[in-house]
Amino acid sequence: MTENTGIIKKLTEVPPEDYYVSGHRTCAGCGAALGYRLVLKAAGPKSVVIGPTGCMYVANGHQFLTSPYAVPWYHTQLGAGGPAGIGTAAAFRALMFKGKRRREDVNVVVYGGDGAMADIGFSGLSMALTYEYPHLLYLLYDNESYANTGIQASSSTPFGSSTTFTPPGKVKKIGNERQKKNMALLAASHPGIGYVATACTSYPVDLVNKVRKALSSDRPSFVQLLAPCPKGWAFPPEETVDMGRLAVNTGMWVLWEYEEGRFSLSVKPSRRGKVTDYVLKQGRFAHLRNNEDALGYMQQTVDEDWRHWEEMDKTGEMEIHWMPPYLKY
Amino acid sequence: MWTGTRAIAEAVKLADVDVIAAYPIRPYTGVMNALATMIAKGEFSAEYLVCDSEHSQFEVVKHASAVGARTFVGSSGTGLVYGAEAAVVIALGQLPVVGIVGCRALDDPGNFGMEWNDALLFRDVGWIMSWAKDPQEALEMTLVAYRIAEDERVLLPNFVAVDGATITHVASPVTPSTKSQVEEFLPPYRPAHPLDPAHEAVSKAMHISPSLIGPEQRKALDAAMKRAKAKVIPEAWKSWVDVTGKETPAFVETKHAEDADYVMLTMGAYSKNVDYVVGKMRDRGVKIGSMRLRYFRPFPTEEVREALDGVKGVGIVDFSFSLGSPQNGSILYNEVKAALYDADERPQVMGFIFAGGREMKIADLSKAAELLVDSTRKGRVDHPVRWMMVRGEDA
Hints:
The complex is a heterodimer. Helix content of chain A is 33%, strand content 13%. The N and C termini of chain A lie far apart (55 Å). By secondary structure, chain A is an alpha/beta fold. Chain A is built from 11 helices and 8 strands. Chain A has helices at residues 31-43, 55-58, 81-97, 114-120, 122-128, 183-188, 204-216, 230-233, 240-249, 275-279, 292-315, and strands spanning 47-52, 73-76, 107-113, 136-142, 195-200, 221-226, 256-259, 262-265. Chain B has 2 domains: 4-244, Rossmann fold (3-Layer(aba) Sandwich), CATH 3.40.50; 252-387, Rossmann fold (3-Layer(aba) Sandwich). Chain B has helices at 4-14, 30-41, 54-67, 77-82, 84-92, 117-120, 135-150, 179-185, 214-244, 271-283, 301-307, 331-340, 362-378; strands spanning 19-22, 47-50, 71-75, 98-103, 128-131, 158-163, 203-204, 252-255, 262-267, 288-293, 295-297, 313-318, 348-353, 385-387. In chain B, the strands form 2 sheets. Chain B has a 7-stranded mixed beta sheet with strand order 2-1-3-4-6-5-11, with helices on both faces. A 6-stranded mixed beta sheet of chain B has the order 8-10-9-12-13-14, with helices on both faces. The chains are: A alpha/beta, B alpha/beta. Chains A and B meet through strand 1, strand 2, helix 3 and helix 5 of A and helix 3, helix 5 and strand 7 of B. Strand 2 of chain A pairs parallel with strand 7 of chain B.
């Protein structure tokens, strides 16, 4: 059993032991399942995992009584990730403090989707991030929609996505007209937070290190993990890893961390690809293929965003990003 | 002299609760204020979590209980409704959480009055529910609730309902239990399968845990509720009597019921008003008695049937409503009627609805008792259910 919790440099240093094993029924090419495996490898055996309702609850538990978890795991309600995490951590601290349980560090990992954390559970998550429990990680696996209920828009769905709640049509040509909420920046707005980062399943070494930094910080931490979703984004399942790399290389997804009050970019693409390189590979954006206004808007928002990211990387200071809405652009 | 909320806080301290989740709503809030003060002063130690909502409150204690902590929670009125999703899964997860409900009207805006519909929303989903009559009993019921909830034959959460204002805010003499009494009475909570990596890994969800799957899960709760009724609740109160030396019935309390032709039946604080009115009528020679249910879930069916055997008319003093229900009656009324259906001789049953949050006056209650006596004597009930606190044809 690998007890090493240190920072790694290459993929071969990722622990061989798995705590997210067979027994699940996620889609072929599921980014969130790949992420689960890596996150629990990083967290190790002395962990409790909490799963708010979502793909990673519904597809991982099954009526055939199978479970893919080799560590204690408990479902929680869709909006309950925040309180479930601090409730679990509070129980361990109380029992250890009162001598009712042996004292040792126990990791608590809440692995919730964008619907669970950016929407219905936002208030509870924000409350939890003001507490001081150590070894507590809120991991938002971001597949950019309510995927298990059939791909409905969340507030983490990007501009232009077609979802079953935002279908494009003759009158509404764009699909989702809202801009993706920046959850990691919001998490970083909690002054006492331990550690904040964004990650992507296509960057496993970066992900493992960020999970370990989060769990070894002495406060609750937050990691937002982009998890490409073949079903919801409409791309072939064998392209999950490529899609994550494209997201980062086109600047549509930005890998950064915020540690002890200092911001830094984790990956700086030397020359950013065009957003169309990423967007037009996915069926959810197919209706925009000939919509130069919309595609132009997406490129401009990414460029504008990156002016902020690069400035932040230089100064180490947080900045709030503001974008004009599409119709006023 | 302690209010009900202060008395309950004492019980939580005596039970050495590990994790407490708080969110403010009147009238239950005082218990959390008192607990926060105790912890700040170092009177006992617990993780005290100030939450962002009732939903979070109930989720905090649900997950803390799963790890193996003893927990405490509470709410009132629409706050309890806000926490409902989490409260339901606490029961389905068979987690022995103890909570209080400071009973309050469901919100027409700003209605602070007393009503039972908040607590009774949970009557069907596996919470044990007891109703205290005063701060002393609220303290004792809270302590006994932990013993019942955590019994491995039960493992069901327990709400102690205390009527808003009359118990939560009115001070009365309370003799707290002693630490040694509680240590003798209440064993530590040790779950068989805690959510703790020091134990065997368990996965808990409706989909994948054999005890948590659909119909079997509900049947398991049903069996637990039956064991609570038949064995665990009577045993717990018997043991409480042994430890404290204070005679306490488990499920029901009656006064003047042995030879009564008429009985006024209720729960909670207003049972004292009922006893007063009944006593006055007894002085006048009316053969009337009173009955108070201490538990609503499990419902004391046999005890009710037995105590009402030979009684000709029963009047239900009910602070709930159940719109569109059979007879357009209220919840306690319909439950008592259902319990009496299989009795050898069924008495007339009348429902007197005091729900809505307007303070009951003794005159209103006297009127209800007179209506019961008159209707029963006539042998015919024209209006079996009446709203007692409104003007108009019902009253």
